[in-house]
Amino acid sequence: MLNRVAVLSDVHGVLPALEAVLAEPDISTADRIVLTGDITAGPQPTQVLDLLTGLGDRVVWISGNADRELLEYRRGQRDTIPDPIAPWAAEQLRDDHLELLGSLPRSLSLSVHGLGKVLFCHATPRDDEEVVLVDSRLDRWKEVFDGLDADIRTVVCGHTHMPFVRLAHGRLVVNPGSIGMPYGRTGAHWALLGPGVELRTTSFDIAAAVTRISQESSYPEVAEWADYFLHARATDTDALEAFAPRDGRDHAP
């Protein structure tokens, strides 16, 4: 049984944001750091992976759809990736990075004090790019929970880059938000579990981070990329409008 677990999701290869979060005292004292996917697809993929692997066994890794897509691209299993930065990021990865990404599970469970058995995944327990939102209807949550063990009372997911906590069919659902590509408000968003749930935001010097990323990354449009995502220029309204059709609500009775 773990007392405290820090959840970091959707780092998307943004090293300054990750470094800021890892410097938090509650991160350094947490029993585990769980990464709920989309770790690499961004402007500093190798630096992020090297920093995280250097933390050793305290880090628990889960694959996200973007991590899978980078691996498939490098293996020749796909010719394109929808995210413009992803093919570039895929080409930066070393063989040891590819081996690591290929070994990651889609989900796993840990016992956390006060929360019991917690399932960690990227998007939903059954799919790494399925969309559920804070306002998804209960029938939708019933669908994505189908087949889960009854003793799993908390589900932690990422993917949509917007933090929330809600109840659905008696299960607590937690989305920590995004470390590197926040929607709606700036900062690096993460969560601390045990015995309850705390949504956290780590502030850092965004202008300095944009400058640093622009200097250290060779991605051709890196300055524009960093300015847009680190300043959270996509609002939560923009993101919800884009994601909402994908949670099945358009087909609801």
UniProtKB/TrEMBL annotation:
Belongs to the metallophosphoesterase superfamily. YfcE family. This is Phosphoesterase. InterPro entries: Ap4A_hydrolase, Calcineurin-like_PHP_lpxH, Metallo-depent_PP-like, Pesterase_MJ0912. It comes from the Bacteria. The lineage of its organism: Bacteria, Bacillati, Actinomycetota, Actinomycetes, Streptosporangiales. GO terms for molecular function: phosphatase activity. Residues 4-191 form the Calcineurin-like phosphoesterase domain. One of its GO terms (cellular component) is cytoplasm. It comes from Streptosporangium carneum.
